[in-house]
């Protein structure tokens, strides 16, 4: 493999959480008087840390979301995860092969550490990830599209950015990877590849990923 570190996004790449979380986010914002469709949520917030929701609502309306917005949102999302969340089809096979090939990997997510761990425990992916290879936007203060998270993950894993490859399914994530000086492959199971412009390549079945990385 030509890369020394594979950096996975979490939501939509490791766990199939985007339909669940964006449905809940759109419904909650609409409930609070900020009409938001599922498609709006995917367009504006997919791949972003929750502070982007606060920022965009503030910019567009001049209003602040409730102080307990994050807590309520996470409670609703985690409850839905417990009922519905599954791992992305084929991802366990990819992780198993990386381990067998002794290729280091990690996750770098705009989601909180709690969100990452809840999703992994629910789907059984916690068997593949330890504290040392889980990174969150909480660690750096700025989420994607800023490159900070990916650069932080690479530094902690001891790999130069140009030797890393990122697996992403969001526009903001692809932008962050490019800004970090990393190659990135766009997972198009949910996101049309035109929204992932700049990626080195695209795939819609996780079984294709290892071939792309070789």
TrEMBL record:
GO MF term list: hydrolase activity
UniProt keywords, alphabetically: Hydrolase, Magnesium, Metal-binding
Domain of life: Bacteria
Gene3D superfamilies associated with the record: HAD superfamily/HAD-like, Putative phosphatase, domain 2
Cofactor: Mg(2+)
Pfam families for the chain: Hydrolase
InterPro entries assigned to the protein according to its UniProt record, in alphabetical order: Beta-PGM-like (IPR051600), HAD-like_sf (IPR036412), HAD-SF_hydro_IA (IPR006439), HAD_sf (IPR023214), PGP-like_dom2 (IPR023198)
Family: Belongs to the HAD-like hydrolase superfamily. CbbY/CbbZ/Gph/YieH family.
PANTHER family assigned to the protein according to its UniProt record, in alphabetical order: 6-PHOSPHOGLUCONATE PHOSPHATASE
Protein name, entry field: HAD family hydrolase
Classification lineage: Bacteria, Bacillati, Actinomycetota, Actinomycetes, Kitasatosporales
């Amino acid at each position: 493999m030509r890369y020394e570190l594979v950096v996975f996004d979490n939501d939509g790449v490791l766990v199939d959480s985007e339909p669940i979380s964006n449905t809940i986010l759109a419904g909650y914002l609409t409930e609070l008087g900020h009409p938001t469709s599922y498609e709006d949520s995917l367009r504006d917030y997919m791949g972003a840390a929750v502070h982007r929701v606060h920022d965009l609502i503030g910019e567009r309306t001049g209003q602040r979301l409730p102080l307990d917005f994050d807590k309520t949102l996470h409670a609703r999302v985690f409850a839905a995860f417990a009922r519905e969340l599954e791992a992305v089809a084929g991802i366990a096979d990819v992780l198993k092969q990386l381990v067998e090939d002794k290729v280091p990997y990690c996750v770098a997510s705009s989601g909180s550490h709690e969100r990452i761990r809840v999703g992994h425990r629910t789907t059984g992916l916690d068997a593949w990830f330890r504290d040392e290879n889980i990174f969150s936007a909480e660690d750096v203060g700025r989420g994607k599209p800023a490159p900070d998270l990916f650069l932080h993950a690479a530094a902690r894993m001891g790999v130069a950015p140009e030797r890393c490859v990122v697996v992403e399914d969001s526009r903001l994530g692809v932008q962050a990877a490019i800004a970090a000086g990393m190659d990135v492959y766009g997972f198009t199971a949910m996101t049309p590849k035109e929204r992932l412009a700049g990626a080195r390549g695209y795939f819609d079945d996780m079984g294709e990923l290892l071939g792309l990385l070789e």
